[in-house]
Amino acid sequence: LKIMNFGIIFNYLDLYKLADLFNLNLLEKAVVDFLVKHLSELLNNHPDEVLALPYCLIQEVLKSDQLTSLNEEQIWLLAVRWLEHNCRYQYMDELLQYVRFGLMDVDTLHSVALSHPLVQTSQTATALINEALVYHQSIYAQPIWQTRRTKPRFQSDTLYIIGGKKREICRVKELRYFNPVDQENVHIAGIANWSELAPMPVGRSHHCVAVMGDFLFVAGGEVEQATGRTCAVRTACRYDPRNNSWAEIAPMKNCREHFVLGAVDEFLYAVGGRNELRQVLPTVERYCPKKNKWTFVLSFDRSLSCHAGCVVDGLLWISGRKLHLS
C-alpha cells in the first residue's frame, strides 16, 4: 500500500502512524484492511516489516474475521514469531486471545501449540488451548459453545444452497455456496460464482435447514429408497464450514417433509410436516445439541404442512399451510 503525492511515498506503516497521530479512524481501518488482505504475501516477501508492526496494529489484524489468507496454525506461528521478535513477551497473554485455537484440529493443538515452550510458561496460553480441546471433545454441543475463539473466519457473509431435485437426478446431495466477487473484478467476472463444497451424506428434497452457532443443520425431507420409492425420513446432519465436513446427528422422533425448522436460543424446533405415510402432523419436537437428542414439546393446535416459518426476536413464527380436504 503506497501513496505518492508531491513526490512523497507513504507505506502502510507511515499511514498508520499518521492515522494514530491525527485520530483518522477511516485511514486506520484502511491500513488494517490492507494488512488483513495481504498478510500472507507480506509474510513471504517482507517478513521483517510484519514483525516490526506495533502491538496495537498486529492485534487488530489477528482478531479480524476476514483474516483468511493464513490458516489458524499459521496465525499461531506468526503470533509466536512476533512475540519472540525483540522479546515482546509482555503482550503474550493478550495477543494469544486472538488466536482461534478452536479452529485448529486436535493433533495440531497437541503437536504444535501445547508442547511449545511459550505455552508451558503461560497459564493463560495453557488455559486457552485446554478450552479448545474441551470444545473438540464435545462434538454435538459445539454450536452452542461458540466464542470469538471458535468463530470461523470468512471474507463475507455466504449464501448456501443444498439438496433438492434436478431433472436428470431425482434427489441431489450437492452443497454449493455463492462466492461474492470483489467489486473491482465485477466487470471481469460478469457471472455469479457458485462453488461446490462437500456433499451431504444422502441426497434429499423437501428438507429443512437452519443455522446455529455457524453450523448448518439439515433435517428430514424426502429420500429415494432402493426400490425407487421416495418417502419422508427422520435423519438429520450438520455441516461444519471450518473443515468442510458433515456429521450425522440424532434422528428426529417423526419422519417429516414440508415442515419448518428453526433455531431458537440453544435449540432447534421442527414443526408439523408430513410423515412417511403422507399423514399431516401437528407435532413439534426440539433438538438439544448438548444431549444430541430430540424430544416432543407442546403440539400445534392443528395439523399443518407446506407452511412457512422464520425466527424473529427469539420467537419462531409460523404462517400459512396447505389445506387437506377430505
UniProtKB/TrEMBL annotation:
Q: What are the UniProt keywords, alphabetically?
A: Kelch repeat, Repeat
Q: Which residues form the BACK domain?
A: 12-113
Carries keyword Manganese?
A: no
The reply to whether Repeat figures as a keyword in the UniProt entry is yes
Question: Pfam families given for it?
Answer: BACK, Kelch_1
Give the protein name, as stated in the record: BACK domain-containing protein
Lineage per the UniProt record: Eukaryota, Metazoa, Chordata, Craniata, Vertebrata
